[in-house]
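To whoever is on call:

I kicked off a structure prediction for a single chain this morning and the downstream step that reads the tokens threw a length-mismatch warning. I double-checked the sequence; it's 260 residues and nothing unusual in it as far as I can see. Pasting both halves so you can look.
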Amino acid sequence: MEVIIQRDAQSASVVAARLISQLLREKPNAVLGLVAGQSPLPLYSELVRKHREGHIDFSRVTVFTMDEFVGIPPDHPASYSSFIRRHFLDHVNIPAEQIRMPDGRAHDIPEHCRAYEAAIRHAGGIDLQILGIGTEGHIGFNEPTSSLASRTRTKTLTPRTRRDFAPQFGGEDRVPNFILTMGLGTIMEARQCMLLAFGKTKANAIARTIEGPVTAMMPASILQMHPVVKVFLDQPAAALLQNTSYYQWVYDGKPEWQKF
């Protein structure tokens, strides 16, 4: 696990975008795993800028998104499909047939989840999975106690989570009870993972994820077992880490062939 600490979210996202640019230069037909939420927004903005300036071509890229609410159409303004389209996909040149998203209105949800896993395998697997992290350590909607080997499936939203989403849906009673999410086992099969975390509210989860034990009570900690993970943090999110000077020393002293 490589920990990259920058001054702020924008600076960290610029470095993260360079990593994706390098991947696409080496493999123009890469498969990317996309996530919704506030953490990836600066990254998506930077990728869109680089595309508009002619530095990145996404025309051969395939994408899989991580989550979707059960029971709402993809064009619902609060859907994760709408979010990712609005902030990223509508501004780059990924062909529609190369975009795969969980369908929250699938007739047979368990079969749809199995088919989604099969589609990832058929595409050759995910080359780089972008991740955010919740304050309780969840990635995707793999909440504490989620199986560390879980696959794409439905999860029940907690009352707290439904309250958090209430403004987006126009009231708590309108928030779906269930969500589709990639499992931790699915995430761990990506060839490379990129975890983004910004702000002091993420500091505790980040410290436990990076320097604590691997446990289902801190789902993101399973990333310690992944062979290639890069964690991009701003200084507030890194505030509770014990080894920040070492992480910075490693990053500053990278050999040329490892730099991006």
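Update from on-call: the warning came from a stale cache, not from the record. Cleared it. Sanity check on the structure: The mean pLDDT is 95.
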